[in-house]
Amino acid sequence: RIVYVNGKFVPEEEARVSVFDRGFMFADGVYEVSSVLRGKLIENEGHMTRLRRSLSELSMQSPGTDDEIEAIQNRLITLNKLDEGLVYLQVTRGAADRDFIYPGENVKPTLVLFTQAKNVIDNPIAETGITVKTVADIRWARRDIKTVGLLAPCMAKMEAKAAGFSDAWMVEDGYVTEGSSNNAYIVTKEGTIVTRQVGNAILNGITRRAVLALAEKHNYKVEERLFTVEECYDAAEAFVTSATMFVQGVVKIDGAKLGDGKPGKITQQLRELYIEMALAEVS
Ligand code: PLP
């Protein structure tokens, strides 16, 4: 596999980043994951806009213009002959002597990209759905910034896995924030789609925005508000969204089985609508 590091496209074995890189020492870096269908990026403009925001919230230099970054993403897709999967991109503040104070403008950001093949559309999980365990959200207070500081969600997912679940839904003050690497939704028995409102407590998902717009266009009632774990147990359906999973049904939350144990009808429709929108973008 060819990867990109600071201006060079190189085989992954030859890629090098300094041990003094602040991404390595302080998790002082941000990232984006865009999905790829038919060799083309999906919703990449949204990912670029969010990258700009993450960089700006952390006063981090940009490694290039949107067009320059997109050209690197596309070149990597071509070099690796990627048809379906994802492009990961990470920007760190660069390599400097270890200091809590950010280095000066002379230290240039580190830009790393790689691709990963994955069946995004024909994902077997779409048929079975996933199970989730609720766990305490022990992350920091700026989850709206997409940083590489991901140990807390790793711990959350490990806790879920140890108990036999596929993923974790994180909970703060009795309310669900989001999944370990996705946004979380329930569908009430009345058919209302409920998901937490954006703010500092969750990541403003690019897929979330598109899925909510599709839901409203198809006349579903959408409520962006706090929802409790008890509401989850009582839900008719539940699902998660992310760039690499699109829409995936949740069939069990802790001990509560939802519906007939398969992804629900509204969940399936939203998945189909999102796939349709994504395919339209690449054809
Ligand atoms: N929430 C968290 C914590 C995430 O890590 C992600 C994606 O990685 C998402 C939500 C979904 O965001 P997006 O739809 O932009 O992939």
From TrEMBL:
SUPFAM superfamilies, alphabetized: D-aminoacid aminotransferase-like PLP-dependent enzymes
Pathway entry: Amino-acid biosynthesis; L-valine biosynthesis; L-valine from pyruvate: step 4/4; Cofactor biosynthesis; tetrahydrofolate biosynthesis; 4-aminobenzoate from chorismate: step 2/2; Amino-acid biosynthesis; L-leucine biosynthesis; L-leucine from 3-methyl-2-oxobutanoate: step 4/4; Amino-acid biosynthesis; L-isoleucine biosynthesis; L-isoleucine from 2-oxobutanoate: step 4/4
UniProt-listed GO biological process terms: amino acid biosynthetic process; folic acid biosynthetic process
Source domain of life: Bacteria
MF (Gene Ontology): 4-amino-4-deoxychorismate lyase activity; L-isoleucine-2-oxoglutarate transaminase activity; L-leucine-2-oxoglutarate transaminase activity; L-valine-2-oxoglutarate transaminase activity
Pfam family, one: Aminotran_4
Entry's Gene Ontology cellular component terms: cytosol
Reactions mediated catalytically: 4-amino-4-deoxychorismate = 4-aminobenzoate + pyruvate + H(+); L-leucine + 2-oxoglutarate = 4-methyl-2-oxopentanoate + L-glutamate; L-isoleucine + 2-oxoglutarate = (S)-3-methyl-2-oxopentanoate + L-glutamate; L-valine + 2-oxoglutarate = 3-methyl-2-oxobutanoate + L-glutamate
Enzyme Commission (EC) number: 2.6.1.42, 4.1.3.38
PROSITE patterns listed in its UniProt record: AA_TRANSFER_CLASS_4
UniProtKB keywords: Aminotransferase, Folate biosynthesis, Pyridoxal phosphate, Transferase
Cofactors required: pyridoxal 5'-phosphate
Stored Gene3D superfamilies: 3.30.470.10, D-amino Acid Aminotransferase, subunit A, domain 2
Family designation: Belongs to the class-IV pyridoxal-phosphate-dependent aminotransferase family.
Free-text function comment from the UniProt entry: Acts on leucine, isoleucine and valine.
PANTHER family in the cross-refs: AMINO-ACID AMINOTRANSFERASE (PTHR42743), AMINODEOXYCHORISMATE LYASE (PTHR42743:SF11)
Name the UniProt record assigns to this protein: Aminodeoxychorismate lyase
